[in-house]
Specification:
- The complex is a heterodimer.
- Chain A has five domains: 2-61, no CATH class; 189-326, Beta-Lactamase (2-Layer Sandwich), CATH 3.30.450.70; 335-420, GMP Synthetase, Chain A, domain 3; 426-487, Histidine-containing Protein, Chain: A (2-Layer Sandwich), CATH 3.30.1340; 491-617, OmpA-like domain (60s Ribosomal Protein L30, Chain: A), CATH 3.30.1330.
- Helices cover 56% and strands 17% of the residues of chain A.
- Chain A has 23 helices and 16 strands.
- Chain A has helices spanning 2-11, 18-36, 38-43, 52-61, 63-77, 79-100, 103-122, 124-160, 164-176, 180-188, 220-237, 240-244, 280-296, 298-302, 315-319, 328-371, 400-406, 426-437, 460-472, 491-502, 519-539, 557-577, 602-608; strands spanning 191-200, 206-211, 252-255, 258-264, 268-276, 375-383, 386-393, 414-420, 443-448, 451-458, 479-481, 485-487, 504-506, 543-550, 585-591, 610-617.
- In chain A, a hairpin with a 2-residue loop joins strand 9 and strand 10.
- In chain A, helix 7 packs across helix 8 (124-160) and helix 8 crosses helix 10 (180-188).
- By secondary structure, chain B is α/β, with parallel strands linked by helices.
- Chain B has one domain (2-163): Rossmann fold (3-Layer(aba) Sandwich), CATH 3.40.50.
- In chain B, 33% of the residues lie in helices and 29% in strands.
- Chain B has six helices and seven strands; from the N terminus they run βαβαββαβαβαβα.
- In chain B, helix 4 (89-105) links the parallel strand 5 and strand 6.
- Chain B is globular, with a radius of gyration of 15 Å.
- The chains are: A alpha/beta, B alpha/beta.
- Chains A and B meet through helix 11 of A and strand 1, strand 2, strand 3 and strand 4 of B.
């Protein structure tokens, strides 16, 4: 076909000259060159316009390419075709790009993050399903470790809660405001992290090793390889790798006092050789350190081929894991151990001081008691944690409780035991006089050098009572001087006394009955007497009216005496009849012996025939 | 310091352990071989002026009952295959071990040791087979646990291969 076309092309315009033929051939060759080499195409302009056959020629020559291009064009234009084409090469393209460098990862990571976010928002359950196999074991492990930690502390707390040390720790917990379990853990977790091996998981080679200065070990490189081998052995033996993934292997291993803790990471694991019983914080520290090592040396860990130099820089971090609590109970407690006897000493001093102060207070109290009249302190002693103060006390003396209230002593700590007695101290005698005699307000009782002096005014009856009381005072009692008292009577009494005593009942000669005109006088006297009795009763003093009968001097003395008694008796009866209390009435016959007038005239004799009245208080 | 994990492999009773005993440092007893199935030794060398520690995993010999624990091979930078020159079957075992190691951890440098060189007159091993394997890239060294011949050199050679 090519031949036919080219023939047609060469023959169509008739019969060209040889030169033209050559020029055309040259142009054709040039066009071919343009098609073959893009450099030529750029430098040489196309000559297709010059010769239409060239275009036909090109179509003939590039038919296959044109079709291929059309196919490609179609692929690009049709979205389905394009997606199909790109989709078929995408996995291989990603793999190739990822193998070259990180650019692809960096480029798609924001998109992936957004997609993940959208996916979670759309259906969180799916993400949970995806993550569960990963997160599940990690969460379980975390919970198990937490539980193990709490159980450990619980065990120790139980073990130590009832001992002397436990008591000490309780005090410390109370003092520092932390929980008892924390204090127990602080003291009981006596441990020492001696060695720390950072071991490459895959090769078992030692990446870094730190040890306490005083700790010795055989060749750490060998130890680390052997540890790694044992981990593998355990993992293989119990088929841990299948189920537990990276978390399998030995977690902790105890040999007597020696404990090996392994903390596994993706590329390396930490093995800590510990003496004693470490608290859970050590495990936490190991985990954190391993995490940070993985963070900082991620590349070095992944590409590790035996050169441990990069990991020398990790040693300071590892060194932080060499925790210890070894000598806490011996070294760190020493200030506390000093503090305890000091505290005890201080408590003792305080106690002794309190005792001394209390003793002084008691002494002062006893002295103040001794100062009180009517109180005799016989003894003050401690008994059963209390002070017993005993002695004699006049019931009228001051109240010991009132004195105690003035001191700084705790009243509950003082017990008083007092025997009653009667004191002869002037102050007490004075008080007794006051209590017993109830002196009226007009009477002042005072204590002076010689004894007790009464002054002021007092009714006679009170004075009589006072005198009687003074008589009963025992020998040796202070002298009570009543001489300065003035006798003062009740005005009503005085008025009635005078009124009664002024009255005289007159009699006819030798008649025992009063004269007929004496009735009014008798009525008046009876009235006065009734009033007197009432006043005496109200005021509370006894009263006595003596009815004295008189006769004149005529006649025999015996008959006159009888007559005088008779006259007195008659008047008593008449007064009684007039409502006068007979118990106050006494009768006496004076005969002619107490004449009113000494003369013998009829008037004088008549004056002497009478009944007179004497009023007195008292019996 | 550069460290390399090296496995010491071979059939049961070819004398791996006694071969290296005089040339390595160790702190573990042979009992580990029968219990854990591996014993760790260390060989310090100088390669190109730099110190190198070969951590030797002396892995319990393979026999009909026990196969080599694959997990012990992981991360090995190279290995020594020990063959008893007087027991041809140990060469077969070595070949099978080599194939397994190759499959497990990929192609790493190794040297095959024809042990009991002091008993060379008793050797029953086929020299053609050796030649064949050598052609396939195997390196053979004749060693003797008894005289210690060529052991040191072998370590040196392996170290040089690893350092490359």
């Amino acid at each position: 076909m090519n031949a036919r076309l080219s023939l047609a092309a060469t023959q169509a315009p008739g019969e060209p000259s040889e030169a033209q033929q050559k020029a055309r051939l040259a142009a054709l060759l040039l066009e071919l060159a343009r098609c073959v080499d893009p450099n030529v195409a750029a430098s040489e302009p196309s000559r297709l316009e010059d010769d239409p056959r060239l275009d036909a020629m090109r179509r003939v020559l590039l038919e296959r390419e044109r079709l291929a291009l059309a196919r490609l064009q179609h692929k690009f234009d049709d979205p389905n075709e394009l997606a199909d084409a790109v989709g078929s090469v995408l996995p291989a393209a990603f793999a190739l790009a990822a193998a070259q460098d990180d650019r692809l990862g960096l480029a798609i990571s924001p998109t992936v993050e957004r997609a993940t976010q959208a996916s979670i928002q759309k259906n969180p359950g799916r993400m949970v399903d995806i993550l569960y196999p990963v997160m599940g074991p990690a969460i379980r492990k975390a919970i198990a470790e937490t539980l193990e930690g709490s159980l450990q502390s619980l065990n120790q707390a139980l073990k130590h809660s009832l001992s002397w040390r436990g008591l000490k720790w309780r005090i410390e917990a109370w003092r520092t405001g932390s929980s008892f379990a924390e204090v127990v853990l602080k003291h009981t977790a006596v441990f020492r992290v001696d060695h720390l091996f950072l071991i490459h998981r895959k090769t078992g080679l030692l990446l870094a090793h730190v040890a306490r200065d005083d700790a010795t070990t055989r060749d750490p490189q060998l130890v680390s390889a052997m540890l790694s081998a044992i981990q593998d052995f355990v993992r293989d033996s119990f088929d841990e790798s299948a189920s537990g993934g990276s978390s399998g292997g030995i977690d902790s291993l105890r040999l007597g006092d020696l404990l090996l803790w392994c903390e596994e990471g993706p590329s390396a694991f930490l093995a800590a050789v510990i003496h004693g019983t470490p608290p859970a914080i050590v495990r936490t520290r190991l985990g954190e350190t391993l995490g940070s090592v993985h963070d900082q040396w991620r590349g070095a860990l992944e590409e590790f081929a035996g050169d441990t130099a990069p990991f020398e820089e990790a040693e300071p971090q590892l060194r932080l894991c060499l925790l210890s609590q070894a000598a806490e109970t011996h070294k760190k407690v020493s200030p506390l151990m000093w503090l305890i006897p000091l505290l005890l000493l201080a408590a003792l001093a305080w106690w002794v001081g309190q005792r001394i102060i209390e003793g002084r207070h008691v002494d002062a109290y006893v002295a103040s008691l001794q100062d009180q009249p009517g109180i005799v302190v016989m003894g003050a002693e401690r008994r059963d944690g209390k002070w017993l103060v005993s002695g004699l006390r006049d019931p009228l003396a001051a109240q010991p409780e009132a004195l105690l209230a003035k001191t700084e002593l705790d009243p509950a700590r003082i017990v008083g035991r007092w025997e009653p007695y009667q004191a002869l101290h002037p102050a007490i005698v004075l008080r007794r006089l006051q209590a017993t005699l109830d002196p009226p307000s007009t009477v002042q009782l005072t204590q002076d050098a010689n004894g007790i002096r009464a002054s002021g005014n007092a009714p006679q009856r009170w004075m009589e009572k006072a005198r009687a009381f003074v008589q009963t005072l025992p020998a040796g009692a202070p002298k009570v001087d009543l001489s300065a008292l003035k006798d003062v009577q009740d005005p009503d009494y005085l008025r009635l006394r005078d009124a009664i005593q002024a009255q005289l009942i007159h009699f006819d000669f030798s008649v025992p009955r009063p004269a007929a005109d004496q009735e009014a006088k008798l009525d008046a006297v009876a009235g006065y007497m009734r009033e007197l009795v009432q006043v005496a009763r109200d005021q509370g003093f006894p009263v006595k009216v003596t009815i004295v009968g008189h006769a004149d001097a005529t006649g025999k003395d015996t008959s006159n005496l009888a007559l005088s008694v008779g006259r007195a008796e008659v008047v008593r009866s008449m007064l009684r009849a007039r409502g006068v209390d007979p118990s106050v009435l006494a009768v006496r016959g004076a005969g002619p012996l107490e004449p009113l007038r000494p003369g013998a005239s009829e008037d004088e004799l008549s004056m002497n025939r009478r009944v007179s009245f004497g009023v007195s208080t008292g019996d | 310091m550069l460290q390399k994990k090296i496995c010491l492999l071979g059939a049961f009773g070819v004398g791996k352990t006694s071969l290296v005993r005089r040339f390595v440092d160790t702190i573990f007893s042979d009992a580990y071989l029968t219990t854990v199935g591996v014993k760790i030794d260390k060989k310090l060398l100088t390669v190109g002026g730099e110190q190198m520690a070969l951590i030797l995993w002396d892995i319990a010999g393979e026999d009909d009952i026990a196969a080599v624990r694959v997990s012990y091979l992981r991360g090995a930078a190279g290995y020594l295959l020990v063959i008893d020159g007087t027991r041809p079957e140990t060469l077969d075992t070595a070949v099978s071990i080599q194939a397994r190691v190759d499959a497990e951890i990929g192609s790493v440098p190794f040297v095959a040791l024809l042990n009991k060189a002091d008993l060379e007159e008793d050797w029953t091993i086929s020299m053609e087979r050796i030649a064949q394997l050598e052609a396939g890239g195997w390196r053979f060294r004749r060693t003797s646990a008894k005289t210690g011949a060529a052991v040191e050199e072998t370590f040196q050679e392996l170290a040089a291969l690893l350092a490359r």
